[in-house]
Design a protein that fits this description.
- By secondary structure, the protein is α+β, with helices and mostly antiparallel strands.
- The chain folds into two domains: 122 residues, Ubiquitin-like (UB roll), CATH 3.10.20; 321 residues, 2-Layer Sandwich (Creatine Kinase, Chain A, domain 2), CATH 3.30.590.10.
- The chain has eleven helices and 16 strands.
- Strands 7, 8, 9, 10, 11, 12, 13, 14, 15 and 16 form a ten-stranded mixed sheet that branches. Strands 1, 2, 3, 4, 5 and 6 form a six-stranded mixed sheet that branches.
- Helix 8 runs antiparallel to helix 10.
- 49% of the residues are buried.
Length: 476
Amino acid sequence: MPSLNTSPGLAVSSPRKPAGDLGRLRHSGPVRLEEVRAAVERGRIDTVLLALPDLQGRLKGKRYDARHFLDRVASTHADMCAYLLATDVGMQPVGGFALTSWEDGYADLKVVPDLSTLRPVPWMARTVLVLGDAFACDEQPVEVAPRQILRAQLERLRAVHGFQVQVGLESEFVLYEGRPATGSLAGHPLAPVSSTNLDYALDHPPALDRFLRRLQSALAGAGAPVEAVKTEASPGQIEITFPYGPVLEACDVHLLLKHAARALAARAGMTATFMAAPHAGVASGLHLHLSLWRDGKPALGTGDGRLSPTCDRAVAGLVEALPELAPLYAPSTNSYRRYAPASFAPTSMAWGYDNRTCAVRVVGHDEGLHLEVRVPGADANPYLATAAVVAAITYGLDRTPPLPPEQSGNAYQDRTAPPLAHTLEEALTWFSESTIAEARLGREVVQHYTRLAQVDLDHQRALVPDTERARWLLHA
């Protein structure tokens, strides 16, 4: 990857034309408000994006004049319509949410900037991004906001058991040539940027190589350097791995990745999708690599290659509880098309050592021993998926359920492990009736995300898919 000091404009424009507007804000992580203020005074920054992570794991919010943000917003809050946390994936207002609806006139909520998340956005000229947290008019956090749900689970684990969580996210998406026509991608007219299996390849087509370089440089310039980039077996599929780190920041960075990938793809005349199964035979995941720490020491291993009692309970909690929390990590009808045999996506809650057919893969050695949770798909909201995993681990530590035998062979053939839901409808039934979900997440959260899943189900039921029409039109 080219040095950002010698080629600062690579992620923004042509590598021959450095973009000096962000050069002084290159940083190994988030930047300080004072740095932004100084950059504004020098004319290097003129726009601040204040973003609220929405239910679907996207950045939504407002563009502010940088001086206005510094003078009027940074130390207080911004008002945004509460429907940002009560809408479907198409941003259509839908009823049935307790948070807000037509009945209460879609009032505002307060979005308070989390200044620890300030970052330059190299793929947008003279721009920085800051994430915000949602508060109600009574100054209380909005409990159904994804960042708040994750914070609550992390605090519960820390308060009750004294553990902190470290996470590394492994994100997959598919890159297509061309841009979709107005309307939709129905029929998938776009071709993947590569037409063959490029798993572990180091000889990428020129267009793909240029995109990967620009994405890698853009994320580094935003203070979120990747650990590794890898092309996958499915045509056009890419995997981005980030270094281990604090949980909330890891999830913040994942939303930054999605924003960057889509923006840079569009600029190159391409399309990036984070669907779990964008077409038949493709399964894109969001794998969570997770470890527990107490007093600065890892807690999942014993130092002699064995799992600690803490790890046994954590895995047992994941096996028992995660199937009942599926709408948090598999939120759409498409999510469940990913769970197929021989897809490297799990079909049951089997666990095993270094076994990629399992839902929970124990991997690493000594201090690096950790859990890879392979259940979430690429379409998962990272805050919600991680919250579900932490809630299931806490359940295991609280209740100490028995640990099932490990799976050392092909988990797709295991008929004893708890199954994952086959459809969103099945997952929704388990979630809405789950005593584990209500006890761990609270009734308000369960009802909110039950409604969100039902909205997606209702939408899909009202449509006739192209595949269904092609199969039956001339034969019914």
